[in-house]
Structure formats: structure tokens, C-alpha cells
Amino acid sequence: MIYLKNLLFQEKFHSRWLILVIDLMVVLLSLWTSLYFKNRLQFDPISLYYMMFYCANAVLVFMIMKIHTCIIRYSNTRDMMRILITVLASNITFLLLYNLFFTFYLKIDVRGLVDVLLINFFITSSMLMCMRIIIKDVFKFIEATSYKVEKENVLIYGSNEPSILIKNALEAQKGFMLNVQGFIDNGVDRVSKIIEQKRVYPIKSIESLKKRFDIKSLLITAEDIKVDGKREAVEKCIELGIKVIVVPSSDQWINGKPNLNQFQDLKIEDLLERKPIKICNEHILGEIKGKRILITGAAGSIGSELVRQVLMYNPEFVVLCDRAETPLHDIQMEIEDGLYGNRTRIFIADIQNTGRINTLFNTYRPQIVFHAAAYKHVPMMENNPTEAILTNVWGTKNLADISIEYKVEKFVMISTDKAVRPTNIMGASKRIAEMYIQSLNNLLFEDHFFNSDPAKGNQTRFITTRFGNVLGSNGSVIPRFKAQIEKGGPVTVTHPDITRYFMTIPEAVQLVLEAEVMGKGGEIFLFDMGEPVKIADLAANMIKMAGLVPGKDIQIVYTGLRPGEKLYEELLNAEEEVIPTYNKDIKISKNIPVSYTKINNLIKDLLELNLHNEVDLMVSKMKTILPDYISNNSQYEKLDIKLIDKHMVN
């Protein structure tokens, strides 16, 4: 079989000119057959001229349409359609030339020409298509019998054009040891239909198909997927131990063919995704285009994505500020390798350093500031509260005050749901920062304080955005779970009932940008985080996605809540109300901001305690500023008891 395959399907044997000759022979045979049906083989010299002229015309049309250049064993429905068009064009051009040449110049009348051409169209097109189908099937048969390697049986989600392209690509390339057994679709109009010789099955059939064909994987195309149907199919496959593979869209294929390295295992982010968030790109473009933008924390998860997305809206330039040298260098290299390298400025600085931040503002005069620099890890900040205060409170205050001095147009602070009824140092520090940012918005500053015109007051509009956990961010549970699974477990979860809100980094940044457009000043924007996710379920699904069984192959171990950790997060305080916006995914928290004088004095006292390293007094001060700050599973719970006793005495 291998010898026969090499003989018949080597590239030299497969010359386009040989295909053209074979096609011409088919044309001659078809024309002869057509004449037979019409004239009962009553040939004469005129009929011979007729055939010669038709073949010459056919060769010209076939060469123009290039049907002989296609590799027959890769023929598809488009190639078949091209054959129909080519044969039709050949007959039409011959008819026109016949009327011009034979009838007008030679005065020869060949009766029944239209009838012959009609019969010839059906015979020629049918024979050319059948020839290609037979050759393709013969090649597949020889290919299948030449190699004894067993292919893995797979299903493809969806039955639209992208899914069909994947199926054809898998069958055309011998490097893919995958055998498509059918399509999975949730569309009632497609189920039980046959597409490209493969049946379309409903999602509920996945379990029976696994048993019948020993299905190993489900391929999901990366375009035109209905989230609900995909989620249902994916969850079914995960439950049955079927691997889920994401195939890139066809426009990302190399030389028009998918590469095995482009196939990726399904990520837990895909399983948790919601319906796409819609934002108004025109509004964002009008706000950012041509502006000077500063992004603090530019090397972090949110900050780096802010850099990527802001650059797409054609700012004058973007200043990337961070104190982490290596991550900042990495994002710089990424940007310089792209289209926007000349629109970035790198500035290494700590937001606590007043002199350095003044230099930044004096040099680049930013018009919009996105403040993403912060300490965010709850247990680490619980053990290092002084640093949480210095960065999250003093650093934010320092940056905001300098923004007012340099008349920044808008200042957007990235906050967290952990600032709501905080139970830890990190959340409390972010809430105090929120309060200071809100207090600045309508303040009239004295001339000596910021060296600005008192009549004009504060020209900077301060905006806060608040959302929960982002998928794939540095230090999030997903990379940790993945590493634990790769090591063979166990996967550690703090509590069986702990839940968290999740959002992808790109969609969080999209909402930050739209909130910046909406913001008039003083608002706290809340993002729709969807439904909370149970972390234990998340861990179990990740184990299943790795083809393993939770509790059997990989154990899930509960380690207890970490210092300062909540069982669940909130986006609103109990007394807060929300106002809807034109974007259903963004709402505004309606609360009464504290006065600037009050919060400024409280922060000064807090920083004074921080300076002298009076940790317990400092945390007590935070609890005084935030009456709803009650420590949870933390060494600072003792301070809550003291405050309660103090209030009782008073």
C-alpha cells in the first residue's frame, strides 16, 4: 500500500499539467457522450470541427479558472462549486464564439447546439467532480491502511463554517492523529443533520458517544460560539473525563493550516466566562486620543493590561510607572515589539517618593492618571501593615495631591471589593484611600496649599472603580491550583464554603476605561461581577480538566481561613445604594463622602503612628476611622475587643 501511495500521490505525478490533460480527456468523453445522445453518433467533418473548437475553448477557460492547480486529495465543496462555474463558463463562451465564428463567418449551422451543451454541462461537471471524489477517497483509504497508528476519536463543538474548517483541516493533515466522529450542537435546526459526511449530535448525546466511540476530546472553535451551549457541552465533558481543546480561529492558522502547537487545553477562565461585556469604544477614543496618560503599577496584572488597551486608543503617549524593575522591563519589551513602542515612556519610581513623583509630573504633564499601584495580598499585608499604609494610603494621597497641583483632568483609582466592610489590613487601607479620593473631588483648596487659584479650586475629577478578583492575576488561586495539580496534589483550599467573584483582566480594564469616560467626579463605580464562584468547585473542575478525578487522583485539602480572609466578598456596604448607568455592567455607589479636613487629619495621625512603628495603635486608628472594620481570623481581633470594651465604658 505504501508503494502504491508513493506511486500515485507523489508530487511529480501530481503535476498540474497532467491534471489538465486528464480534465481535457473527461471533456472530450463528455462531449462525445452528449453528441451520442443527441445525434446517435452521426459524425461528420462539421462535428469534428465542433469538438476541436469546443476543446480548445475549454482548455483556455480551465486555465483561466485554474481548476487544474488544486491538489485533488484536498478538494472540498468550494472546489466542486468552482468546477460547476468553470464548465458553465466554458459552455457559455463556446456558444458566443460559435455564433460569432461558425454562423457568421463559416455560415455553418450545427443544429441542436443548445441541447448538446445542456447535456454536456451535466455530464462534464458530474464526471469532473466524481473523478476528484474518487481520487480523494482512494487516497484516504491508502493513507488509512499505510499507517497502523490509532487515531484519537474526537468531537467538534458547533456545526457552522469554522467547525467544518477544523474538521477538513484535521482530515487533510496526517500530522494530526485525531479522528472526527461528529459535531455537537445545541441548535434544534442542525441536530441529526449530516454535514461533510459527519452527523450533528445534541449535547445530551455526549455520554453515549463516549461509550460508543471512546471519545477522548472535544474541540471547541474560538469563533462564533454561543456561551450557554458551550458551557453546557464543556461541563458535560469535564464531568465525563473528556478533554476539552480550544482551536484558534482560521485567520490565525499558519499558511492556511492549523498547527498542533496552536491547540490549547481549555482554561478555567473559559469555563468561568460570562457573556461578552459591551463598551462604547467611540466614547473611550474621544476621551483618550491625543492625551498624555500616566499609569501607576504599570507592571502589574491590571496595570499592564491598562497599558495595552490605552495604547489602542491613540494617546499622545503613556507613562509606565512602577518600582518593579524586571516586570516593567518585560512590559517595555512587549510594547516595543509591537506597534506602539514610540508612544511609551518608562519611569521607575515609588509612589511614596514625593520628589520623584513631582519629577514625573513636571517632565510629562499627564492629563489622565490611572492609579493601579497597590499592595493587594491579604495575608502578606496582615503581617506587614505599615507597608500597606505607606503604599495604599500615603502613596495614593501623595499621587492625588500632586495630580491636583499639576491640574490633571481625571484621576482614576483602582480599588477592590475587599474595601467593603473590611476584615483585613489590605481592605481597610484601600477603603481609607477611597475616602480620601472622594473627599478631594469638590474641595476648594487654599492658594498656599497647592499654589493654585482659589477661585478655580480643584480642577481634577477623582473617580474610583471597585471590583473583585481578576482571573490569572499575579498570585491568584488559579495559577496556584494549576501548579499543585501538576505536582500531583494536594490542592489546598482554605474553606469548603469560601466564594469569590471573578472577572477576566481584559474585561475589568475595559470597564475601568468606560468608567473613566462616565466619571464626573466623586463616584465609586461598581462592576457587575456575575455570580460568585465556590473555590472548592473551582478546584474540582480544574482537577477534572486535567483528566483526573478529585478525591481519587488528586486530593482537595482544606487548610483553614488565612489571616484577614473572608468567606465571601461584597461590593457594597450595607448603607450604600446604587445608581444605574447606561452600561448595565457598571453602577455607581451612592454614599456621602467624608469631609476633606476630617479625613486628611485622620490620615496624618495614622501616618504619624506608622512613622513610629506603633502597629497596634495604628491598626486601632484604622478601626476608629472605619467603624465597620472588624478583623477576621487575625491577630488584630484583640483590638476589636478593646474597642468594644472602651465603648461600653464610655
Automatic annotation (TrEMBL):
It comes from the Bacteria. The keyword Glycosyltransferase does not apply. The keyword Transcription does not apply. InterPro entries: NAD(P)-bd_dom_sf, Polysac_CapD-like, Polysaccharide_Synthase-Rel, SAM-dependent_MTases_sf. Coiled coil: none annotated. Belongs to the polysaccharide synthase family. This is Polysaccharide biosynthesis protein. It comes from Mucilaginibacter rubeus.
